[in-house]
């Protein structure tokens, strides 16, 4: 029995050598993480020295913005940002989100009159502007004030000649003008949806109004549905005007409308220029 067990457990010289090599490799692998640091030491950063060097760099007048400006950028080209196609903004390195913001700005009537206007766009970083600024080329004609536009006769194309008015604003102005019957004064532009005081101040010197071009409302024959379009009157006021006419006959002057209780003096002043009593 012992002889059989001994023969079973005995190893040949080749097997013994193979086992020794295997044990050596296992020990080498297990010990590698402990042995490696002795032969390869990482260079540690002295944070105090790093901060001191950074302070000296700033004191020397050097900054990353100037560095970025002095580094040439491949693939950039001279461009006018006004009306630049999205594909070209993409070539300039702008993201889809940045391009959407730029196109939305243009649709609202925004224009770039000088290179610095580009960095005012939300999403354009200081680094983006520094990279692009040397290539921005806005023609002198883009900064010239256009001829004054008459609001009651201008079509949408003519309205977009106004600096600060794009296709979206032009459509809003025409829609409101049609509901009114025309503008009596240019301050009424502030009643146009989306056109606030800031935008009005930007464009007011580029527009004028010819009040003789307004379309007057035949108050004695107009229907409820058509009178309802006038922005200065709400549903109840329109209904009261039609009902009062039905009960008392034709209106002869604005004073007759003053008899309607729910129409105050402020409303009368607004609608009076638009009414015809024939």
TrEMBL record:
One of its GO terms (biological process) is protein secretion by the type II secretion system. The chain crosses the membrane at residues 20-39. This is Helix-hairpin-helix domain-containing protein. Keywords: Membrane, Transmembrane, Transmembrane helix. Coiled coil: none annotated. GO terms for cellular component: type II protein secretion system complex. The lineage of its organism: Bacteria, Pseudomonadati, Bacteroidota, Sphingobacteriia, Sphingobacteriales. It comes from Mucilaginibacter segetis. It holds the Pfam family HHH_3. It comes from the Bacteria.
């Amino acid at each position: 029995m012992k002889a059989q067990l001994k023969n079973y457990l005995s190893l040949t010289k080749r097997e013994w050598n193979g086992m020794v090599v295997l044990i050596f490799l296992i020990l080498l692998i297990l010990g590698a993480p402990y042995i490696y640091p002795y032969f390869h030491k990482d260079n540690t950063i002295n944070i105090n020295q790093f901060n001191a060097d950074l302070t000296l760099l700033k004191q020397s007048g050097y900054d990353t913005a100037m560095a970025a400006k002095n580094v040439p950028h491949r693939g950039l080209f001279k461009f006018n940002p006004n009306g630049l196609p999205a594909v070209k903004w993409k070539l300039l390195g702008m993201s889809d989100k940045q391009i959407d913001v730029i196109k939305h700005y243009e649709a609202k009537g925004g224009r770039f009159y000088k290179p610095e206007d580009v960095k005012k766009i939300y999403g354009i970083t200081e680094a983006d502007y520094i990279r692009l600024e040397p290539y921005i080329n806005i023609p002198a004609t883009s900064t010239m004030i256009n001829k004054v536009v008459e609001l009651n006769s201008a079509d949408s194309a003519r309205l977009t000649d106004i600096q600060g008015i794009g296709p979206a604003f032009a459509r809003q102005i025409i829609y409101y003008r049609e509901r009114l019957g025309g503008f009596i004064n240019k301050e009424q532009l502030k009643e146009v949806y989306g056109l606030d005081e800031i935008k009005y101040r930007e464009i007011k010197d580029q527009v004028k109004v010819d009040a003789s071009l307004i379309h007057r409302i035949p108050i004695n024959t107009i229907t409820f549905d058509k009178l309802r379009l006038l922005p200065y009157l709400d549903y109840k006021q329109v209904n009261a005007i039609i009902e009062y006419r039905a009960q008392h006959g034709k209106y002869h002057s604005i004073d007759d409308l003053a008899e309607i209780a729910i129409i105050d003096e402020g409303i009368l002043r607004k609608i009076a220029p638009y009414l015809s009593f024939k």
